[in-house]
Amino acid sequence: MAKAENxxxxxxxxxxxxxxxxxxxxxxxxxxxxxxxxxxxTGLEPSMWGPSMIGYGRYHYKYESGRExxxxxxGFSPRKANMVVYVLPGYTDHSDILNRIGKYKLxxxxxxxxxxxxxxxxxxxxxxxxxxxxxxxxxxNWKPE
Length: 145
What we know:
- α2 (about 25-40) packs across α4 and α3 runs antiparallel to α4.
- The protein has a six-stranded antiparallel β-sheet.
- It is globular.
- The longest helix has 18 residues, at about 25-40.
- By secondary structure, it is α+β, with helices and mostly antiparallel strands.
- A hairpin with a 3-residue loop joins β1 and β2.
- It has four helices and six strands.
- It has helices at about 15-20, 25-40, 95-100, 120-140, and strands spanning about 45-50, 55-60, 70-80, 85, 105, 110-115.
- Helices cover about 35% and strands about 25% of the residues.
- It has a single domain (about 15-140), classed as Alpha-Beta Complex (Aspartate Aminotransferase, domain 1).
């Protein structure tokens, strides 16, 4: 039986153009800020993953089941309901940082933020750095594009 491919793949869409077309003014402004923050913290340029995820770096994964693929190292998505920030690799307890960040909801590997004004941006940068560093250690063959 063929293994299912990851549906979320890197695309050629320009992340800045994507963000410029986000309908909600506040979400668009927050996404513009996050473009700069993630670029500053990672030292990388963004790329689009699927129709709505903005990623920085990529890594190759392979599960025990044999399924494998590539995915973004870190990033975000300006969704209608909230901003989704992909910064928690899921391997380390980051509660010391999360306790200081502000208002959010937690997913398995992401934060759901209503608006950036709800979080401490310096602490968010700290969390992005910690998650990105953890991913680089776990996936030493990661790629910057």
